[in-house]
Amino acid sequence: MSAGTVRAAGGVVTRIDAGGQREVLLVHRPKYDDWAFPKGKADSGETDGECALREVEEETGLRCELQDELGETSYVDPQGRQKTVRYFAMHPLRGEFTPHNEIDEIAWLSFPDAEARLSYARDRELLAAVGPDAGSA
């Protein structure tokens, strides 16, 4: 990764709903009016896994368990900087969402509904990598 690249990490958080179906968590950012997976910039000295767990908790209020690494995406952010984001599969342990200035809404959605709502093709690729049946019992 080049010196000018912004390093970030995030999570694809899934759970099993009351009917036994897997759902995925999306966040809405009012600043960009988009739907995406929770993510954010890494702090100095922080591993990608630590960053992903922290950012998911900060954005959603959910403390999660880190699972498999899903890969990374790279793009130019709205400020014109190159950004690389490493994503991890996660399972929620506890917590509760409270709207705030960065994230005003979250949604637990079926995989088809999440695919339709995601704002970016790169996020739809991550969703496909997790798949609606991966890890379900």
Provide an overview of this structure:
- The chain has 137 residues and is α+β, with helices and mostly antiparallel strands.
- The protein has a single domain, classed as Alpha-Beta Complex (Nucleoside Triphosphate Pyrophosphohydrolase), CATH 3.90.79.
- The protein is built from 3 helices and 7 strands.
- The chain has helices at 48-60, 111-117, 121-130, and strands at 6-16, 22-29, 34-36, 39-41, 62-76, 82-95, 105-109.
- Strands 1, 2, 3, 4, 5, 6 and 7 form a 7-stranded mixed beta sheet that branches.
Concise overview:
This protein has helices spanning 48-60, 111-117, 121-130, and strands at 6-16, 22-29, 34-36, 39-41, 62-76, 82-95, 105-109. It is α+β, with helices and mostly antiparallel strands.
Q: Count up the helices.
A: 3
* Low-pLDDT ranges: none
- What is the 3D form? globular
CATH fold annotation? Nucleoside Triphosphate Pyrophosphohydrolase
Mean pLDDT: 93
Summarize the SSE layout with pairings.
Elements: E1 6-16, E2 22-29, E3 34-36, E4 39-41, H1 48-60, E5 62-76, E6 82-95, E7 105-109, H2 111-117, H3 121-130
Parallel strand pairs: 1-6
Antiparallel strand pairs: 1-2, 1-4, 2-3, 2-7, 5-6
